[in-house]
Amino acid sequence: MSILAAEETHNPLIPPLGEIIVGLIAFAVVYFVFARFVAPRFEQVFRARREAIEGGIERAEAMQAEAKAALEQYRAQLAEARSEAAQIRDQARAEGQQIIEELRAQAQEESARIMARGEEQLATARQQIVNELRGQIGTLAVDLAGRVVGESLAEDVRRRGTVDRFLDELDAMAAAGDGRSDGAVVVPESNR
Amino acid sequence: MTSSAVALADVLAAEGGFQAPTIQEFYPEPLVSFSILGIDFEITRITIILWIATAAIVALLVAAVRKPEVVPGKLQFLGESGYSLVRDGMARDVIGPKGLPFAPFLGALFFFILANNAMSIIPFAQISPNSKFAIPLVLAVIVWILYNWVGIREQGAGKYFKDAAIPPGVPIGALILVTPIELLQVFIIRPFTLAVRLFANMFAGHMLLVVFSLGATYLITAGGIYPIFGVASFAMAIVMTFFEILVIVLQAYVFTVLTATYLAGSVEPAH
Fold first, then answer.
1. What is the pTM for the complete model shown?
2. Is residue A84 part of a domain?
3. Residues of B in Cβ contact (< 8 Å) with A38
4. Residue A179 falls within a domain, yes or no?
5. Which of B27, B79, B90, B234 could form a disulfide with B64 if both were Cys (CB 3.0 to 4.6 A apart)?
């Protein structure tokens, strides 16, 4: 039983030196290839992937920022447009107010002018009437004096009566024109 | 003939009942033997499996990064997932901000162990080079040298050995106990357990599979009611194969994450 005889010499925890050297070489081969080629390539892939992901995130962030800027701009424009509209409204209101004021002032001026002209006309008319009346009174006085002279003295009583009537007429005229400088023309109150 | 086939022949030829597989499983007949500078080399089928696993993982990794794309293909994605697990989950998160330079080493460690472990269930290989103590030992010694060297480089030899011997915050009286334990742990137990954990898992996994497979073969040919148990044994071999897949990935992960933990302790002073 050669197997049994050989078994005596084998201790599994004491390996022959040859096996150790072979194992060392085998691991050295794997380590060399792995450290030299495999791991750097893997690292390279990891880096490329990380960069790709980070690049994607960066791009997305840039786009988001752009969109945000556009929104801000839009909002600013909207606010500007609103304030402009409000300004225009205010201006229009102010202008309207001004126009009304102007019109009112104009109307007042116009009415004042009309009134002034009316008064002027009235004054002119009165002056005309006074002048006319003065002329008539003279004529009347001359007429009356002629009549008085032409009457017979016999008719003393009638003559007296005529004079009296004339005087009465004058009195009445004077009474009606009382308070006036000339006392001859009566101007109705409502016309003033 | 594979060692398992030899064992199978023994099982079938056995007169006196079932012969369990022995440690001889792990010492197949050398195909070539030679000696260089007084060191004996034996090329066995396990040596060939080691080189197949090494070539396969190198080829796969190179193929994965041959045309790197930002949007990865299937193979690149697979490679990236494995490397990210090591780079982000261990180098960056376990070791810390100074950990990224160690990512290639940890990655090579992880993929090398994974490929060699995987050979334990690849048909026609069905034995992991890691079930030979030599390979885990080599890896553990490399890790041991690395974390001690990094510790000395980052903290200075004096501070590194002082912190290892006298952990800060320990009462002086307790140092009588703590100092030997700490020194033993950092300089002997860590590399030893690291190597043995991986070796023993792959060793035991292979033994389990062989026992259930040979048991099934033996029982099915034994006659009587034994074939029923043979079927159960065969089913168990299948179940253990799936369990072995878990162990393959888990042990590769554990070895690498522990390496990262030790490196973390060397990069940053103990806290």
1. 0.67
2. yes
3. 61-62, 64-65, 79, 83, 104, 107
4. no
5. B79
